[in-house]
Each structure stands twice: as structure tokens, then as C-alpha cells.
Amino acid sequence: MASIFEIESSQQADSEKGSSALPSEDVLQEYRKRVEGTNIDARSFLSTDYFNSFNSVVMILDLLPDAPDLLEEVEQWRYVNYTEHFKASGLDFAELAIEVYPFSPPELREAFERKVQGIRLIIESLIKTLRGLLDAGEKDAFANLARTTTAQLRAMMGEGNGLVHGYACKAQEEIDKMFQD
After folding, report:
1. What is the pLDDT of residue 178?
2. Which of 95, 106, 110, 158 has a 20 to 30 A CA-CA distance from 167?
């Protein structure tokens, strides 16, 4: 059997081409057993822990209306992808999270990745816009934008968490069909 990293590399290349072959049901069942007791959903093979990479910056963004000087700290935030997050996380299930990620149901993983990219783009754009407002002395606009966008980001992360657990991307009966044994 090929190593999981060989499979992952092959699937990443296939994914870029639009192909998304999944392993046999026996292999998927083995992965489901291995993820038990971790923060990896056994149906989606995704982990909500990934959103911690966004939670840290959103918590600081939440403070900006009352502490604009924290913008410098927010400006230090850098996006990390799913694999990078888990490689750096130190979590005991990090390698497994990376290993099973390519085996997430393709439509679910694509919806998850779109949500993540949406969050990323909003944060990166927000940081630049907030810097411009603060430098222009627009404190009320700065505070209002920080408040409203932080609420939007929290909602988006909630939707992302829903995707991890197999919700919000399709009608429930279609989700159930994806996960039937």
C-alpha cells in the first residue's frame, strides 16, 4: 500500500485537475476508527481546530473599537492553510488531520475551502482598510467597520464549523447520502 503522503500528493495534483478519487470504503472505515477520540469529524475528515488560526485574529479584531493600537498586532497575522496549521499546531492528532484531509468528501471539502478563502480575503482586506481609516483619523468609521466585520467573520467561522460537521452545503438528505455506509 502506498504511503498516505504519496496518496495525498497524488490527490492534491488530481484535485487541481478536477479529479477526486476516494479510497475504498474499507480504507475510509479504517480512517473513521482512527479519528475517534480526536477533534476530527469521522464523516467529513475535517477538524474545527483549523478555525483557531482565525479565532486568534478575530478576538483581537473584536477589541479594536476600544483599543485601536492593537491594529499593529492584527497586522502581524498571516494566513496558514490547513496543512500548515496542523504541522505547526503540536496537537497529538495533527498528522492524522493532515493524512485524512484529502479523503474528505470532495463537495464538502470544496465548500469548506471556499469558506476558508472567503474568511481569509475578508481579514486581509479588513486589515488594509482599517489601517487606512486609522491613519486618516476616521476613528468612528474604524470602530464601526471593526465591529461589523468581526460579527460577519464569526458568522462565517460558524458556517465553516457547520461544514466540518457536514452541514450547510447541501440539503440534509443529500448530506446523509454522502455519508451512508
Report:
1. 55
2. 95
Output the pLDDT for position 166: 75
| Structure confidence at residue 23 (pLDDT) | 79
Share of the chain above pLDDT 70, in %: 80
pLDDT at 69 (0 to 100):
97
Number of domains composing the chain: 1
Residue with cell 479519528: 35
Are the CB atoms for 181 and 32 separated by under 8 Å?
Answer: no
> In this structure, what C-alpha cell is assigned to residue 9?
500528493
- List the single range of 13-17, 122-126, 135-139 with lowest mean pLDDT: 13-17
Question: CA separation (Å) from 61 to 73, 126, 147, 171?
Answer: 10, 10, 8, 33
Query: What are phi and psi for residue 19, nearest 5 degrees?
Result: -90, 150
Tell me the residue range of the domain where 27 lies.
Answer: 4-178
> Cα–Cα distances in Å, from 157 out to 5, 45, 93, 117?
28, 17, 21, 11
